[in-house]
Amino acid sequence: MAGRFCVSLTCGKNDTDKATVAFVVANAAVASDKEALVFLSIEGVRLAEQGYGDTIHEEGFKPLRELMGDFVKGGGQIYVCSPCFKKRKLDETKLIPGAAIVGGAKLVEFLSGGSPCISY
Prior knowledge:
Blueprint: E1 4-9, H1 16-31, E2 35-40, H2 64-73, E3 77-81, H3 82-87, E4 99-102, H4 104-111, E5 117-119
Parallel strand pairs: 1-2, 1-5, 2-3, 3-4
Helix pairs in contact: 1-2
């Protein structure tokens, strides 16, 4: 097995640089043949709602919308913190492709085999 790699992201439009770099690193993990996961929590959960990240484009990088799409097309998974999503009263019917609302147990399950995790 190629191994696993997790990126934990707590930011959205409140820190577009962190949000962008998180998906750059996540794409590097997919390109390195890792089973890759991005865990969205706190304000990061907003990125899971269609249209939210469409205008985020940090200079020197691809637009965030493309980075997220590339990640999912490459086989990456996006887990969305259920309590964080519900707290913000977001619409589950408007999730981006590849995103799944999960509880903390799913993240623990992914990490329990010793997966490295980087946080933004």
